[in-house]
Amino acid sequence: MPFRPKLLKAGICPDCGGDLLLVGFGDVRKLRCEKCGKDVEERTVPDDRDKEIAVIDVEEMAKKMGTLKIRCRNCGRVGVMTWQLQTRRPDEPPTQFYKCLRCGRAWKESR
Length: 111
Prior knowledge:
The chain is mainly β.
């Protein structure tokens, strides 16, 4: 079976009612009907290459996010920074992340 990339459905064709797929590469992408093959419109994709990259200082981040007196599973030192992220469905509790301030090892706990 040949490889077929997953295409993003982006609407409905005004002519035949088929699904519009976002196709193309580079800065300009087209909305093409899956059923009749007609190109409906072109869209310009924003260029993200000029965005700034944040450099994070671990000590500064620990001051802002707070530290807990939890023992690191790797080096045994007490003192980790912690944060939460919603990694699953909204009706489930968030995932708690920990990172040791000494050795940098990170781990997570899901409830």
